[in-house]
Please model this.
Amino acid sequence: MSAGTHVVALAGQPNTGKSTIFNALTGMYQEVGNWAGKTVEKRTGQASRQDGGYAVIDLPGTYSLDALSQEERIAADFIKNYSPDVTVVVASAVSPQRTLHYALDVIMLQKPMVLVMNMADIARGNSQHLDVENISQKTGVPVLLLSASRKQELGQLKQAIAQALKVPPVPKHIVPELASGLPEGLNRSFTALVQQVCDVSGFTRMRSEILVWKAMEGGEEERDILRSTVGEDAAWVQNDLLVQPYVQQARYGWLEEALGTGSTAPASSKTVSYDRWLLHPFAGALAMAGILLLSIIVGFGLGFPLALKIGQTSQALEAIASAGIPQDMIVTKALFTGTWRGVGAVLSMLPFIMVFYAVFAVLEDIGYMARAAFIMDRAMTRIGLNGKVFIPLLFSMPCNITGIMGCRTIDDQRMRKLAVLLVPLVPCAAKLIVLVSLASWLFPPLQALAVVFSLISLNMLILGGCSLVFGRFIPRQSSISGLLMELPHYHRPNIRTISRQVFRNTLAFLKKASTLIVSFSVIVWFVSYYPGGSIETSLMGQLGKYLTPLGAPMGADWRLITSLLASCISKEAVLATMGVIYNTPIGALPATLKATVSPLSAIAFMCAQSLFIPCIATLGMMYNETGSYRTLAVVISYTILLPFIVATAVFQIGSMVAATY
Model:
């Protein structure tokens, strides 16, 4: 942002419609990055010149400014130290008692702010009434009641921001009113400590009152300041069991006075009615299975035909273009093939990516994603995860790319890292096709079904074990564990918000991941062509022969090892590579494999293939989402070592069992 540009910060709790307001204020003038030195996503944008051209910063959605989590520290530090010209605090008109607690934290910072009570349409549908004038009088700042999903109501917000930039509205000093709600004895202790801080430190009365009050609420920074100024005289402030219940009671009492009667949603609201079924232990699980299965079918059904058509078109054009390259120009042909197929892979993924981005956005926008996470939380806790990780793992089954994309819905950084590391262990559709094909070729029908089911079950057991192991190496961000989340109210999806989100995420993928995917593709195809022009004589084929001693303990010769290595191009490439290496057409491949590969070697190979390194497209998406080469290196390393270890164990144990009988 240029010097002299006004800065407007958007702050608030999750699920208050803050993103919708951000999109409405900035339109397409948005950038997505990370906060300096952090992994938390940073969204910035700029209002149109007609609306003032001010910069808009979308602060992380948090439940308070107590600086317990990384997101809370970012939001608190930005408002305190960067001092935006105006902070727009977004609260929910449907849940005002809870979401206005965040507004109280910002009010105590005494920075210019505008308060927005969003989702007014849902509140009106629930027969809720908010006394906006009384809230404005109690807080001392402009208060707007609007529905961000309705374009005509956003004009009020733009006018309020323009006015606030001209005449900054400083909030009312509310701590004396809050303190009046304390029991008489605690109020006297508060007043005495405030006076002592004023006398010792030279702070103003207002600053001393805010300091002591925030220390009573549990603020570690404020408690450190008190210890350094008045010493042991402030020790009683740290007695959370004695102080905090009364402090919270005083906050709730102040909010009740500000909100007035009629602000609470009735027990018979639509959300409550729907949740009786959708959160039911049995009916809710069935509904979740149906909704998520339908989402996968829709995503796969819409994305696959488009991706297939693009892939076929790319292959046809490649055949025409490559025909002009002389056969003896092996390097040129390898580079051309790698580049062309890398670009083709990116274009083929676009339908999948756009459709699944839209599916994720719709489920998130209507309020269902949080409920699916809630239902699965208990089961996921047993392997060191929480319910929100279930969604990305489920959506990894059609394609690991969609699972990696889904990790961005996980707000906990630690859980997000774990999910990204675990997604490659979920067998995608391409891996399943290879498993089913090989099993049906090499085993009778019932045995083939048992083999596939056993291998998928083994994958899930390994996923659970890896989750527990990886969890030991990723430190917790706080002492708080478990799933802390809000179940938002159901509402209609906002098409404008969803389309902008899909467009922005797709554009980000094209800018970041596509470069890596094409680069990987060029490298992999080069080593599979050079120097002889065929995979058998190529660097990859030679590597497969070199690794034969490593494959021997798992019952694999160089041909199986090379086929496994080729799967990093794409999982479907395994069968095609086998056809080339075994020098037989695909139609005759089943008979050839049956004659040359033992059943136990086949099971070990399928086990390794189901766990082996993700395809280059998934690795590209993984880097796009994490921005970390370290994470990429960890995934590549463990998905190369683990398959060989597990396949070797399967083959050796199977051999010992076979020798016994």
